[in-house]
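Hi support team,

I'm opening this ticket because the web form for multi-chain structure prediction keeps timing out on my end. I have pasted the exact lines I submitted so you can reproduce it. The total is 192 residues across three entries, so I didn't expect it to be a heavy job. Is there a limit I'm missing, or should I split the entries? Thanks in advance, R.K.
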Amino acid sequence: MKFKKRVKLSNKFYARDSKVVAKELLGKILVRVINDKILKSKIVETEAYYDEKDPASRACLNGDLRETMKMGAGIILVYGVHNNWLINFVTGNLGEASAVLIRALEPLNFEGSTKGPGLLTKSLKIDKNFHKNNLLDSNSLWVENCKNKTNFEIAESFRVGVKKDLSIKLRFYIKGNKWVSKKCIKDKNQKI
DNA sequence: CGCCAGATTGACT
DNA sequence: GTCAATCTGGCGG
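Hello R.K., no limit was hit. The queue was backed up. Here is the completed structure from your submission:
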């Protein structure tokens, strides 16, 4: 009996600069298991967050979120804001605070509203219970490489919704993908 | 302890 | 266009 070769992303993948990880997560497959049902979706929009020198990052605050951001590559960080759960993957080396926010997904084998960071967590039933879980161990949530190579263009812009952004572009999305969040398509905040 | 702000969304004037 | 919902941590009394 032959199993499909699992191509779950490894610790090495996440243990790099969060900007690099954010960019490379585009097109990868997020797998969520709910009661033996496997929901697969493609990651189409991400944002990178850094340590204390990033004014938009929760690492600027003392507390559990900052500590979680230092827990090492592959840890899941769930952050509640404005009545929404936002999911992040911790990146970089142990002790460094950095993470990638998942902003939008394209559902592949199910119906769901996933064009936005708060919406996708609702659709996939991701909440604070996932906080501090590990993508490398979890049997209900992980990320795989895409089997079929698909060509797409990566677009970048400044981050959405943050009051104090850095001067570099840290939001990445698949150009033309209809599941990218509205704000991202409009690029309201983007300066040319 | 109370009140404010924030990486959001949806409902309503 | 405005506003409120919920969680976490900063800050003032």
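A quick check on our side: Helices of chain A lie at 11-14, 18-25, 64-69, 117-123, 182-186. Let us know if the file doesn't open in your viewer.
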